[in-house]
């Protein structure tokens, strides 16, 4: 999900981002740049230490961070921290939090504002989940501390896209517009899949129609998962076929 911006986007440096020049009237900013980072430790979001042992580009793969060594996929857990400096209080704001591989909890000023699944220090203590969401927040004047706990034992292990900060009205419009587009594509695929399955019913030797129908149904389900399925159905199927849904 992207927004149109007419002003220069601020960039985080050494784990801090200044919002003084940001215009949120009809824009959002991406929280790009260097976040403070620590490996194999969940820092206390209510009492975050003043300095972590390094800063890294927020969307950099764990495989590419110097000092970390993996035999294959990057698996483990980590903490990120970013301090947002605002010269005034900002009410009715929101974070757009895209997919984070593969589970996270996001805190602001010690309070949890968004989460997907349950990050943990091991596979048995984590619960993967994978849905973009909006987190409605109010920023206080001065420093606002973001702490992100991330764990991955299933996929790449990295925030793939930067978070966005803007007014709730602006981001919710973009969020719902993006979901509407995705659901339109899902509906078109569903109709095409039903048509292909009908053709296969009458012409059993035309296996390509069957294969296309299965592809269309599977990808329709993947799109709906990303848009937010009703929780009961989502919990029943999503957790059983998590890896296929994410990597398909």
- The CATH superfamily of the largest domain turns out to be Galactose-binding domain-like
Output the radius of gyration: 20 Å
Helix content: 25-40%
Going by helix content, strand content and strand pairing, the class is alpha+beta
- The run of helices and strands is EEEEEEEEEEEEEHHHH
From the coordinates shown, what is the CATH architecture of the largest domain? Answer: Sandwich
| Gap between N and C termini | 20 Å
CATH topology of the largest domain: Jelly Rolls
Low-confidence stretches: none
How many domains? The number is 2
Average of per-residue pLDDT values: 84
* Number of DSSP E strands: 13
Q: Give the biggest beta sheet.
A: 7 strands, mixed
Sum this structure up briefly.
With 248 residues, this protein is α+β, with helices and mostly antiparallel strands. It has helices at 168-202, 207-227, 231-238, 242-247; strands at 16-18, 28-30, 34-39, 54-57, 76-86, 90-97, 100-101, 103-108, 111-116, 133-139, 142-152, 158-159, 164-167.
Model description:
The protein is an alpha+beta fold. It folds into two domains: 16-167, Sandwich (Jelly Rolls), CATH 2.60.120; 173-247. 28% of the residues lie in helices and 29% in strands. It has four helices and 13 strands. The chain has helices spanning 168-202, 207-227, 231-238, 242-247; strands at residues 16-18, 28-30, 34-39, 54-57, 76-86, 90-97, 100-101, 103-108, 111-116, 133-139, 142-152, 158-159, 164-167. Strands 1, 3, 4, 5, 8, 9 and 11 form a seven-stranded mixed β-sheet that branches. A four-stranded antiparallel β-sheet has the order 2-13-6-10, covered by helices on one side. Strands 7-12 form a two-stranded antiparallel sheet. Strand 8 (103-108) and strand 9 (111-116) form a beta hairpin. Helix 1 runs antiparallel to helix 2. It starts with 15 loop residues before the first strand and ends with a helix.
